[in-house]
Amino acid sequence: MPLDPEPQPVRLSDYRPPDWLVDTVDLDVRLHPNATRILARLAMRPNPKGRPGAPIVLDGDELALKAISLDSTPLAGTAYALGERTLTIPSPPARALVIEIETLVDPSANTSLMGLYRSSGTYCTQCEAEGFRRITFFPDRPDVLAVYTTRIEAERDEAPVLLGNGNPVEAGEIPGTTRHYAIWHDPWPKPCYLFALVGGRLDRVSAPFVTASGRHVELGIYVEPGKAGRAGYALDALERSMRWDEEAFGCEYDLDVFNIVAVADFNMGAMENKGLNIFNDKYVLASPETATDADYANIEAIIAHEYFHNWTGNRITCRDWFQLCLKEGLTVFRDQEFSSDQRSRPVKRIADVRLLKSHQFPEDGGPLAHPVRPQTYREINNFYTATVYEKGAEVVRMLKTLLGPESFRAGMDLYFERHDGDAATIEDFLACFADATGTDLTQFALWYAQAGTPLVTASGEWDRQARTYRLDLAQAVPPTPGQPTKLPLVIPLAFGLLGADGHDMKVLPPDGGNAAHGVLVLNEARQSFLFRNVEERPVPSLNRGFSAPVKLGTDLSTDDLLFLARHDRDPFNRFEAAQTLAMAHLVAATGATREARPSAAPAALIEALGSVLGDASLDPAFVAQALSVPSESDIAREIGRGVDPDAVLAARTTLRQALGTALGHELVATYERLSVPDPYVPDAASAGRRSLKNMCLDLLATAGAGDGVARALALYRAADNMTDRFSALSTLAHSARDAREEALADFYERFRDEPLVVDKWLALQAQIAEPGTLDRVRALTKHAAFSMGNPNRVRSLIGTFAGANPTQFHRADGAGHSFVADTVLTLDGRNPQVAARLLAAFKSWRSLETVRRNSAEAALKRVADTPGLSPDVSDIATRSLA
Ligand code: TRP
Ligand code: ZN
Question: Full-prediction pTM beyond 0.90?
């Protein structure tokens, strides 16, 4: 039998408990730039739930095996078999035993940034999902939980700081050498994907923290030398996160130290390794001069996210990678709630829904669609998706909406109590809510199993004589790959019926009575709800707060939508009503024939937005959101088929120009009112004022009104913070061709030594919606500031071009598609994970008009047909074409 057959797709239905367990792992890691030696001592025993007499099969990837022994006796070459991806001991004694393994790895040559690698000279690790097997041979699966002790040894000069999971136990010099060591012990059993170590020259900021029950914790954030001054906000966000989790969920920290390390080369945002989070430095480092308000908000959210994993992910982990949403969806929900409490809840909700619609909806509607809990995968790295994270968070939020806050908390309490220390499943999670509340969640669980964004349609009829209002609702979940037919979901629709006075009517709950607290529960394909004692024709406000992640189609008239935009007590739906009006106009404006396109923006829409702008009682951040018209990709999704990105951009720009022109006076007045010389503070209120101010400026410049361009130039030059300076630069780049090049050159000269700011500069240029942009992006790949080796640079330049510049990525001549495909192929040899993500930018290719669709398909086929692809890229290419 061949030892390592081609990897087959992994199926959820094939899950079996591990045959062998690992109780303790003792590691001795001797750091060296090219030959790091890892001595691993695994105390193993047969799993009572496994198959008796089973072999020991350990995963390994690109490891040099130096030695292996069983209970201190070296194994003969015949006693084990080494394959490409596994090490097998075919007939081990069926009892507790100790395996000792010595491996050698080359961290400097590790460009995939999985396993042990170096970032600016610092040794660091990334083990989720399957990176630990690149450090030592191990059963690399999340349901094998062990207690780890790690000794790290290094040159004192090269790595004065040595960090591991858990608590520091011992440290010292190695006499007669230039080396030193540190020993860390993590008392909490964990899967190997949570293992981490760091060694390097790093500066530190720290603070003490006392938990609710009195545990003293030392918090530390480690950054590149000289950057400690930029870690203060992250440290503050960490302290607030820790306090919040105690108050909101009763979750307390459980070690003596909590460390965060910021590195410049990282495949994702950050990683929740137990007691030792490792971050992309983009989500740690901030100063007013180099970071925008959006950067500060992201830092706060991601610091919180990784910290919250300590309970949802680490103390309770996943049984297998199909359960990824168990930790990710839940933890995103928790970080969203945290940010809502720290900032403005409605504005946070609008921002989160915008992200869901722009990233998750297209995924759910294209070839890469998959359920929140997938049933099969070829490469797990490709399932860290908007569906698992963002839609996964929405499913948890729906659970809270359906059960109410107290019952939801009771379910969470039971989850923490019942599953602490477990590797759990979605079934385990749901059972806690079912048991705590006596609710049957069988149908609700379909949200985890069925892919696709449900379409909910609503129409209402008021009967003047009977004084009743009947709301007819229907739902349909579209077919998705591998799922041609769907069952009805449980869809909680928060709602209100507005009377002519703009207030919610006090009406009796409808017949069929599951609408207790302002939530209609739609759980059949079609359902009617009858409201009694309805004295006048109501305007229904449905899916308030975006209570369910669905597309909603209603029979509301323009006047109804204007009414909601003005009066709805739910701020989200006020926003949404205005967006719906704008969208209707934008879709019509891209209509097939030029003659059929409405030329001017509807006066009603402009008036509605004008009244939002003029309403001084509204939160400026909310007003800025209301004024920001649907994105090009939102419009494309609404059109659905035969999309011409140039027509979409034209419609959107025309509307923004119309707004800038029609509202010119108010925009200037608002801009001036909000232009205050106060020193920069990153809090939500100040950030909201800046976002509205800069939105006004951008609309003015787009419209060529109110001296917008001149004001943007002045703001660019005078700004004392990155939010204003970059926003002004962005306005100039998009709306002022003459002033653009000089400003871009100036910006680069100012910030050339700040890689995170250079990223903004790269991304902005990649976004310019002009035919010259592809050549510019190509040229920038040769620029000294660019590197294919750094994921942040690649994402900023190429990722932005492919993901945020539809007219140029989807150029009719196919050159944009070709360029991105070429880049994916180049990058694949170096960093498959980042290459695969870049290729996923093609996900909506089928919705394009014929010429562009053919060119996208050709580019995808060219990638798919290239020999020697990584499983990551091959998987995305194949599924995209299927
Ligand atoms: N678990 C990380 C999070 O909090 C995600 C992550 C970080 C990751 N680095 C990774 C996933 C590398 C896969 C590969 O969301
Ligand atoms: Zn996470």
Answer: yes
